[in-house]
Amino acid sequence: MAGQSCLVANDWVCGEYVSSRSQELIDATVEHIGITVVSVLIGLAVALPLALLARAGRRFAGPVLGLTTALYSVPSLAMFSLLLPVFGLSAALVVTGLVLYSLTVLVRNILAGLEAVPEDAREAARGLGYGPGRLLWEVELPLALPALMAGVRIATVSTVAMTTVGAIVDYGGLGGLIMSGLRTDFKAQVLTASVLCVLLAVVADLLLLGLQRWLTPWTRIRRGRPRRTPVEKVAQAA
User: Fold this and answer.
1) Residue 223's pLDDT is what?
2) Which residues lie below 8 Å from residue 169, measured CB to CB, with a gap of 6+?
3) What residues contact 66, with CB distance under 8 A and at least 6 apart?
4) CA Rg, the chain, in Å?
5) What is the pLDDT of residues 15-71, one digit of tens each?
6) Which residues contact 180 (CB under 8 A, 6 or more apart)?
7) What is the DSSP letter of 22?
8) Which residues, other chains included, contact 64 with Cβ-Cβ below 8 Å and sequence gap of 6+?
9) Which of 136-140, 168-172, 215-219 has the lowest mean pLDDT?
10) CATH number assigned to the domain with residue range 6-237, chosen from the 4 options 3.90.180.10, 3.20.20.370, 3.40.190.150, 1.10.3720.10
């Protein structure tokens, strides 16, 4: 029928849906972003000490890497079901599950970055009187940033996707719109929320890539000359 509303026709692409449900879409997007950011930040805070523990010796590396890999292999529905008695139907349940899933990538990338730090950088820093803590924060972690940030990017994109599963406990951001749209065969809602999820993942990855380039200027060349790395700065000071 000519002039029929795309909402009435239940079209996949419907500008009328976007304009009439804009606040609902904004609220779901904000919730999605919030859950993702909190989950990745907590995951990073947990992954760093685990990576340091794994680096301390082989007797720790095996259990740490094995545990994080085992957690990642647990299906999402099973993971949330196991956490349900502890956290109940809450956002904490979703965040905890997402944190556990992020550990595999974050721990492995942080560990790989730390192990790739040149020994001469450590020796130069120790020669200047750097203690273990200062050595870690001022030399090792800066040099491990490329690998660390690569892990954060992967974990963030994965978390954006996994957050949608939280819709089963009513804390899934855009996933809630996708699930309700599937139940009611609301095509425009399913497609719009899905596209927003993809856009969130792409934008997050681009922002983190920009942050990575800003934090690691020595990995690119400016005006034909490579920027000094933390290794060169320590060596020059020595």
Assistant:
1) 45
2) 80, 84, 89, 90, 93, 94
3) none
4) 22
5) 888 888 889 999 999 999 999 999 999 999 999 999 999 998 888 889 999 999 999
6) 186, 189
7) H
8) 50, 51, 53, 54, 107
9) 215-219
10) 1.10.3720.10
